[in-house]
Amino acid sequence: QVQLVESGGGLVQPGGSLRLSCAASGTIANINDMGWYRQAPGKQRDLVALVTNDGSKVYGDSVKGRFTASRDNAKNTVYLEMNSLKPEDTAIYYCYLDSWGPLSRYWGQGTQVTVSS
User: Fold this and answer.
1) Which residues pair with 72 in a beta bridge?
2) Is residue 65 within 8 Å of 20, Cβ to Cβ?
3) What are phi and psi of 63, to 5 degrees?
4) What pLDDT does residue 1 have?
5) What is the pLDDT of residue 112?
């Protein structure tokens, strides 16, 4: 059983910063991508950032230049450093992991990020 546990969400003012963490536990083999998606009320779940097993990174267009994802393979942990936060970044942020052999996808329970003055 794989569990993803997020931490670091909260309330922040526009222009502020937050750092999210997600630790994966359980029997995990052949991890491929780790990263983050987000979902605002009434909207679909969108990609924020992914870090592949070889360290390549993919970002959603709306967060490029402001958010930075990183990964510690030894700890099965992925991080999201969020800077210059905007009210439109308000959403539930979900940790994501996929593995191969066979292909499996896992989601965290989500952590709320609210950007408001």
Assistant:
1) 77
2) no
3) -115, -5
4) 80
5) 98
pLDDT reported for residue 29: 82
The SS3 assignment for 17 reads coil
Residues of the chain with pLDDT under 70: none
Question: Are the C-beta atoms of 108 and 22 separated by less than 8 Å?
Answer: yes
Please give the distance of CA 58 from its chain centroid, rounded to a whole number. Answer: 12
Token pair belonging to 86 = 């905007």
- Cα R_g (the chain), whole angstroms: 14
Q: Cα 47 from chain centroid?
A: 9
Q: What DSSP line would sit under 26-57, residue for residue? A: SS--SEEEEEEEEE-TTS--EEEEEE-TTS-E
Exposed (0-12), middle (13-18) or buried (19+): which is 52, by Cβ within 10 Å?
Answer: middle
